[in-house]
Automatic annotation (TrEMBL):
InterPro entries per UniProt: Cell_Envelope_Assoc, DUF218, Rossmann-like_a/b/a_fold
Pfam families per UniProt: DUF218 (PF02698)
CDD domains assigned: YdcF-like
Record's keyword terms, sorted: Membrane, Transmembrane, Transmembrane helix
Domain DUF218 stretches: 84-249
Domain of life: Bacteria
Transmembrane residue ranges: 12-35, 44-67
GO BP: any one term: peptidoglycan metabolic process
Name listed for the protein in its UniProt record: YdcF family protein
Record-linked Gene3D superfamilies: HUPs
One GO CC term on file: plasma membrane
Transmembrane among keywords: yes
Amino acid sequence: MTDSLFFWLSKLIWMIIRPDFLLVAFAVMGMIFWFSGAVKKAKWVLACVVLAMIVITVFPLGTILLAPLEHRFPTNPILPEKVDGIIMLGGAEKNLLTKMWHQPELNDAADRYIGFARLVRAYPDAVHIFTGGSGTPTHQEWSDANTARQVFMDMGLDTSSIVFENQSRNTYENGLFAKTLVHPETGQIWVLVTTAAHIPRSVGVFNRLDWPVIPYPVDHFTRPDRKIKPGLNFSGNLGRLVMAATEWTGLAAYYITGKTNTLFPSSQ
């Protein structure tokens, strides 16, 4: 019951505070002031909206906020000769489109599949698990796991050797439900594959569940040298700002609710 309440509240609150929604909300507020005769207030609100759009267009604020997340753990970590298990978190799937078009549809996080497939082939004797249900309040009938199974088949992987967890709705449930399925033992070596910016929160969850993992970040949005230059890219910068805000807000929410032990997790 508590996890369901967290899921629904997190979706509702995030829908209200996400940067792109706030831009539209304040623009609408400005127009309401204008048509109600409060022209001075309208000018101030609309001026702030335009200024925010200019700042987002010129300065890659999202990239700046993503950089510490993506650099928290090393990319291409040196892995031991023996690995007991490989975990991939869902989140790269467009489930409704997959169901409607009868073929796998993926988003910008599709690099997770490449990284997971690489490790599956490198460690064929390890336990391979994909964890992902549906993270959307609607269309719960088609899960990330359904889409993932089709992708793995198209990639030529043996899906009979992959454990599919299809009930989790967020990162915490990814770890919790996956642990229930595979029962990791003390001393085993597990590798976790997910988007680089999502790695800190994911590692925090697995640490909280007493399941140590080696982070394997993929799907980067920043440069390894951390160089950031101004430009003119409103849509791209806004998209990265929303992504960064999602992760930083998620880190705070998970820490406050006890789903991670630290605000900015590191290796266990």
